[in-house]
From TrEMBL:
InterPro entries: Homeodomain-like_sf, Integrase_cat-core, IstA-like_C
Phylogenetic placement of the source organism: Bacteria, Bacillati, Bacillota, Clostridia, Eubacteriales
Organism: Isachenkonia alkalipeptolytica
Superkingdom to which the source organism belongs: Bacteria
NCBIfam families linked: transpos_IS21
Name of this chain's protein: IS21 family transposase
Database matches in PANTHER family: INTEGRASE PROTEIN, TRANSPOSASE RV3428C-RELATED
Annotated Pfam families: Mu-transpos_C_2
GO terms (BP aspect): DNA integration
Residue ranges of domain Integrase catalytic in the record: 126-313
Length: 493
C-alpha cells in the first residue's frame, strides 16, 4: 500500500508520542502492517527496493572464463585488441554452449570490470618520515603593484612530514627565480630535505616526464650542491603533490585577500615570510595528532644541513657597456656610472633584482625589468657627465626619469640656467629630492631662488653662545695704598 507523506508523518509522530499501532491504524484507516512498517522509521515510502535477480545461467565456470579473458588482455597489453562483451558472449556460445542472452553477459562483464578497476580520482594515503621530502609548486596571484593590477607568481613549498609552509612572490617563474626560491625555502626551513617533489615544468625538466624525466643542467647542479634527489610527478597527476597543491589555494585565499597594494616586491616577501612563521606557530592540520609547530621541531632535526658555500642562483652574462653607459640584459637596459663606458661588466639576473659587477665589485643594482626595451637610469651615474655637458640637462633621459616635474620647473627659475640646474641635481643626489623640495616650500615666493641660498638652508650657521666659566682659583684683593703714595697719587694729611 502506498502511503502519502502526510499520513507517514502522522504515523511517525503518533507512534513517538506513545500511541499504539492498533490505535493509529484504526484512526487513520490504514492497515496495521503498514503502521508496523513505518512507525519506527525503518522504511520510507519514498524509496523502493531495487529488484535484482541473479541469472541462473551465470555459473562459476562462466565467471571464470570472463576473468580469464580480462587476464589475457592485461598480459598482451594491446589496447585496441581486447575482449569486448560481444566477443566474450560469442566465445561462451561457441566453447561452452551458453544458452543465455547477450544482454546478460554484457551486465556481468560490466559489473566485473567495475569490481576490478580503481576509480581515477582515488588516492592512496601517504606517510612521510621527518626530513624525507618537500613538495614544491608555482601559482599565480593578482594584486596592485605601483597602483596597477598585475599578476605575480608565487613559489610554494611544503614539508611532507610536518606540513610547514613557505611562500614567496616573483615577477616571473623562470629558472633563476625557481632556484633562488628553493634556496630561500631551505634557509627558511633551516635545512634540506632528502628529496624534492615537483611536476614536469620546463623550468626543471629538460625532456621526458615522471621517472623518465631529465632535469635541466642547472637544477641538477643545484640539487647536487644541496644533496637532495629530484622526484618528478607523472603528467596530469596533481594528486601526487596534493599537499602543495592545497597550499597554493590556501595562500591565495589567506595571504592575498583582499588584493594587496605594494610598491616593493621584497617588502611583500618579508611580509609573506612573517605570515609563514605565524602559520608554523599557530596552525594545526585536521587528522594530525600534533600542531605544525611541534611536528616541525621534530622534523628540523632530521633535515640535512645547509651547504656552506652559497650557490649562485643568478643568470649571469658578461656585457659590454654601450656609448650611453647602459648594459643590455634580457631585453632591458640598465645604466652604470659613465666611467665604465665601453668596458665589460658582469650582470647577475636574480628573480626580482639585477646586480652589475666590475672586477668583483658591485657598481649598480636594480629591480629586475621583464618589459622588453625598457631602460632604467640612475641620476648619480650621469651627474659627472652633466657637469661637463650642462646644456643637455633638461632633455636628458636620466634626469626626466628620476626627477619630479616640480623640481624641473623650479630649476628653470634659477638665474644661472642649465649650470645651476646641474648643481641643484648634485644637491638632490647628496641630500635627497624630498629635502630639496622642502627648502623650496620654505623660501618666500618673492625671493629669487639660487643654489647658494639652498646651500645656506642645508647648512645653517650656528648661533654663538656664551659659555659661563666657573672661577676655580680664588683671587684676594690687593692694597694699592703704598703704590699710590710712591707715585704721588695720595696726598698726605
Amino acid at each position: 500500500m502506498k502511503v502519502e507523506m502526510d499520513v507517514y508523518k502522522e504515523i511517525r509522530q503518533r507512534y513517538l508520542s506513545g500511541e499504539s499501532e492498533r490505535s493509529i491504524a484504526r484512526s487513520l484507516g490504514v492497515a496495521r502492517q503498514t503502521v508496523k512498517k513505518y512507525c519506527e522509521g525503518a522504511a520510507h515510502p519514498g524509496t523502493r527496493k531495487s529488484y535484482e535477480r541473479e541469472p541462473t545461467l551465470i555459473t562459476d565456470e562462466v565467471i571464470e572464463i570472463i576473468l580469464e579473458c580480462f587476464k589475457h588482455d592485461e598480459e598482451e597489453k594491446v589496447r585496441k585488441q581486447t575482449h569486448t562483451s560481444k566477443k566474450i558472449f560469442d566465445r561462451l556460445v561457441d566453447e561452452k554452449d551458453f544458452a543465455g542472452g547477450e544482454s546478460t553477459i554484457r551486465k556481468v562483464v560490466r559489473d566485473l570490470r567495475k569490481a576490478q578497476s580503481v576509480p581515477h580520482q582515488s588516492s592512496v594515503p601517504l606517510s612521510y618520515e621527518p626530513g624525507e621530502a618537500v613538495q614544491i609548486d608555482w601559482g599565480e596571484v593578482t594584486l596592485y603593484y605601483n597602483k596597477k593590477k598585475v599578476k605575480l607568481h608565487i613559489f610554494c613549498g611544503r614539508l611532507c612530514y610536518s606540513c610547514d609552509i613557505f611562500v614567496q612572490a616573483f615577477f616571473a617563474a623562470n629558472e633563476e627565480s625557481f632556484l633562488e626560491a628553493q634556496q630561500r625555502m631551505f634557509t627558511f626551513f633551516g635545512g634540506v630535505t632528502r628529496r624534492a617533489i615537483f611536476d614536469n615544468a620546463k623550468v626543471a625538466v629538460k625532456e621526458g616526464f615522471g621517472i623518465y624525466a631529465k632535469a635541466q643542467d642547472r637544477y641538477l647542479a643545484f640539487s647536487a650542491h644541496c644533496a637532495f634527489d629530484l622526484d618528478f610527478c607523472n603528467p596530469g597527476k596533481g594528486n601526487e603533490k596534493g599537499l602543495v597543491e592545497n597550499l597554493v589555494g590556501y595562500a591565495r585565499k589567506n595571504f592575498f585577500v583582499p588584493l594587496p597594494s605594494i610598491t616593493d616586491i621584497e617588502a611583500l616577501n618579508r611580509l609573506l615570510w612573517e605570515k609563514c612563521l605565524r602559520y608554523r606557530e599557530n596552525h594545526k592540520i585536521q587528522k594530525r595528532e600534533h600542531p605544525v609547530k611541534i611536528m616541525y621541531a621534530q622534523e628540523q632535526t632530521s633535515l640535512n644541513p645547509l651547504p656552506i658555500f652559497h650557490y649562485d642562483t643568478s643568470k649571469t652574462a658578461v656585457i659590454r657597456v654601450d656609448d650611453y653607459s647602459t648594459a643590455f640584459f634580457e631585453k632591458s637596459y640598465y645604466s652604470v656610472p659613465t666611467r665604465y663606458l665601453r668596458k665589460p661588466v658582469t650582470v647577475k639576473g636574480f628573480g626580482n633584482h639585477i646586480e652589475i659587477h666590475f672586477q668583483n665589485h658591485e657598481i649598480a643594482s636594480y629591480k629586475r625589468s621583464y618589459k622588453a626595451g625598457e631602460t632604467q637610469y640612475k641620476l648619480e651615474h650621469y651627474i659627472d657627465l652633466l657637469e661637463r655637458k650642462p646644456r643637455s640637462v633638461f632633455n636628458a633621459k636620466p634626469v626626466k626619469q628620476n626627477v619630479s616635474q616640480e623640481l624641473m620647473e623650479w630649476g628653470k627659475r634659477l638665474p644661472g640656467g642649465n649650470r645651476e640646474m646641474v648643481k641643484l641635481l648634485r644637491l638632490c643626489i647628496d641630500h635627497g629630492e624630498d629635502r630639496i623640495l622642502s627648502i623650496k616650500d620654505s623660501i618666500p615666493s618673492y625671493t629669487v631662488p639660487t643654489v647658494d641660498l639652498i646651500r645656506a638652508h642645508l647648512c645653517p650657521s650656528e648661533k654663538l653662545t656664551v659659555i659661563p666659566m666657573k672661577q676655580d682659583v680664588p683671587v684676594e684683593p690687593v692694597n694699592l695704598v703704598n703704590y699710590d703714595k710712591k707715585y704721588g697719587m695720595v696726598l698726605e694729611s
